Amino acid sequence: MSIWEYANPVKFIRTADRVLPWLSGAAVICLVTGLIWGFFFTPDDFRQGSTVKIIYLHVPAALMAINAWLMMLVASLIWIVRRHHVSALAARAAAPIGATMTVIALATGAIWGQPMWGTWWAWDPRLTSFLILFLFYLGYMALWEAIENDDTAADLTAILCLVGSVFAILSRYAVNFWNQGLHQGASVMRAGALAGDTEERVSNVFAIPLFVSIAGFVLLFVALVFLRTQTEIRARRARALLARERVA
Amino acid sequence: MDLVASDLTVARGGVPVLEGVGFTLSPGRALVLRGPNGSGKTTLLRTVAGLQPPVAGEIIGAGERIAYAAHADGLKAMLSVVENLSFWAAVFGTQGIDDALSAFNLEELAGRAAGTLSAGQKRRLGLARLMVTGRPVWVLDEPTVSLDAASVALFAEAVRAHLGQGGAALMATHIDLGLAEAEILDVTGFRAKPRARAEDEAFL
Amino acid sequence: MRALLLRDLVLAVRAGGGFGLGLAFFLIVTVLVPFGVGPETGLLTRIAPGILWIGALLACLLSLDRILALDWEDGSLDLLATAPLPLEAIVSVKALAHWITTGLPLVLAAPVLGVLLSLPGPGYLWVFVSLALGTPALSVIGTFGAALTVGLKRGGLLMSLLVLPLYVPTLIFGAEVARRGTEGLSVQSPLLMLAGISFGVIAALPFASAAVLRVNLR
């Protein structure tokens, strides 16, 4: 059995129907556990006080904002190479989720930054990169909406996604170069290695609920992509049936 | 070299309009497509010209041998008749536009800006463009639209001369040009059975 | 290819919009900025390189839809696609024509407009150099945006939305060269990055533009 079997829309819908309850259930359990654990059962940071707890929303959302674009990139490549409609529709389905994650990351960042840095917004490289990423999402979604023919839209958005990825990376470097910034380093990922004994390392007390929360966001993202792809497929199927009725 | 289309299926906006189309066009011959409006003649011509891929089937001997003329003449209003023609001659890497000018009786208009020409004169200029491409197979979509009787005769003469030099022509037209070399292909018989758009099939 | 370039240049001159409109827009933006931020010389001096870059970028954006839309409307794009030129060459030539008619005048005008913004001495050179190096990238990226939206009725606004994020790296490095140069700092690394972006997009992006155009012509 090959993974490409799931490129068949009908097969995809059936499989998605089967796994969606499990996915959503797991997502809810992870999110609830991670967030409640993080919010109520971790000690306050000695410098940042209780505001640090927004990290349980901020970091997972930021991770998913980037991973959603990566997923769209892979899906676009699959569409260009193998021309599976499900792949194009999955990329389309992921875009609004990614955009929402970007907004969540930016908003929680602002809420966190206000008491910490004394400002809602600073032109810090990371913040700026996320803002630019958000603009890429907007353009991508707008192009999907603007083009009537489904296959044309899929082709054009896929190429835009590829070109956009290159420019997004360029922008990231450019922005880093442009302003060194006050955002703290990615201490979480270093904690992920759990090896370093550096001072900056996030201790396990915070890390474990954070990982649960990240897992929750990943599961939530996958579940939402499945759901939205299903919706896109059904909408497409409805249009196809209507079109057939008209010609028959 | 013949232009051969075999078992061709062409689609407009994803909907197959013609299927199983096959023809052979030899040098010195003309093929006239007939069929009611919307039957897919334009789509077939665009496919042969290589502007869109066929849904099924294959076309041999097209590509770089095709000179295509569509409904729109692709003229620049701000350029003169000579400049318009010279541009296309340069793009196709050919020399001399005088033959084309005289064949379509455009000498007197040579210095006029294309934007000031009448519809029929523009059409003549658009058709004169075919002669400067230097390509053997003309693919023409309703070439006689907005031409008067005299201009149609000029056009028929130009096509005859082109065929005489070993060229070929594939055209969609309803006017009888009086070409002895012309065969007629009625596309009505190839109309695709009503069915879903090719790209929709996976979803049904 | 030369014929196509010449034709586009002639058309730009005869239609009047080419050289004039972009330049006039650039001038107006530059004039409006002091009205917005106040006439204080110190402030204007500091923001002059950035303003000139933003102005040039917007003036460039303004004329992007002319690159392909006119040829699309009158059918010449179809005919060009069947011509011996590969589409990659066509979009490259079109971008070059756009640069000559829009980018180059902006580059030449920028030092003059610098006077209005009290640009300090070394700034003239570096604003000129950075724009000369960066505007070709703006034209090439803009052609990609124009190719994406060529079939759409009201593609102008959408094109801006698509193109502006793609302009970010060019703008950052270009403005950085101009700013550092003006302040007498080392410009080496942003200059190299700007050159890298320009040459990179000139080499690679026409393939994407041509692919997109092929989809749109279908």
Automatic annotation (TrEMBL), chain A:
InterPro entries in alphabetical order: Cyt_c_assembly (IPR002541), Cyt_c_biogenesis_CcmC (IPR003557), Cyt_c_biogenesis_CcsA/CcmC (IPR045062)
Pfam families: Cytochrom_C_asm
Chief place where the protein resides: membrane
GO cellular component, one term: plasma membrane
Compartment list: Cell inner membrane; Membrane
Record's keyword terms, sorted: Cell inner membrane, Cell membrane, Cytochrome c-type biogenesis, Membrane, Transmembrane, Transmembrane helix, Transport
TM ranges: 20-42, 54-81, 93-113, 125-144, 156-175, 206-227
GO BP terms, alphabetized: cytochrome complex assembly
Topology relative to the membrane: Multi-pass membrane protein
GO molecular function, one term: heme binding
Domain of life: Bacteria
Segments forming domain Cytochrome c assembly protein: 5-183
Family as reported in the entry's similarity comment: Belongs to the CcmC/CycZ/HelC family.
PANTHER family: CYTOCHROME B_B6 PROTEIN-RELATED, HEME EXPORTER PROTEIN C
Purpose: Required for the export of heme to the periplasm for the biogenesis of c-type cytochromes.
Name the UniProt record assigns to this protein: Heme exporter protein C
Species name: Pseudoponticoccus marisrubri
UniProtKB/TrEMBL annotation, chain B:
GO molecular function term, any single one: ATP binding
Record has Ribonucleoprotein as a keyword: no
SUPFAM superfamilies linked to this entry: P-loop containing nucleoside triphosphate hydrolases (SSF52540)
A biological-process GO annotation: cytochrome complex assembly
SMART domains listed in its UniProt record: AAA
Residues covered by the ABC transporter domain: 3-202
Keywords on record: ATP-binding, Cytochrome c-type biogenesis, Membrane, Nucleotide-binding, Translocase, Transport
InterPro entries: AAA+_ATPase, ABC_transporter-like_ATP-bd, ABC_transporter-like_CS, ABC_transptr_haem_export_CcmA, P-loop_NTPase
PANTHER family per UniProt: ABC TRANSPORTER I FAMILY MEMBER 1
Protein name: Cytochrome C biogenesis protein CcmA
Source organism of the structure: Pseudoponticoccus marisrubri
UniProtKB/TrEMBL annotation, chain C:
Protein name per UniProt: Heme exporter protein B
Family: Belongs to the CcmB/CycW/HelB family.
GO biological process: cytochrome c biosynthetic process; cytochrome complex assembly
Membrane disposition: Multi-pass membrane protein
Any Gene Ontology CC annotation: plasma membrane
Record's subcellular location: Cell inner membrane
Keyword Amino-acid biosynthesis applies: no
Keywords recorded for this protein, A-Z: Cell inner membrane, Cell membrane, Cytochrome c-type biogenesis, Membrane, Transmembrane, Transmembrane helix, Transport
Coiled-coil residue spans: none
Transmembrane segments: 12-37, 43-64, 96-119, 125-150, 157-178, 190-213
Alphabetized GO MF terms: heme transmembrane transporter activity
Function: Required for the export of heme to the periplasm for the biogenesis of c-type cytochromes.
Pfam families referenced in this protein's UniProt entry, alphabetically: CcmB
Main subcellular location of this protein, as a coarse class: membrane
Tree of life domain: Bacteria
InterPro entries named in the record: Cyt_c_biogenesis_CcmB, Cyt_c_CcmB_bac
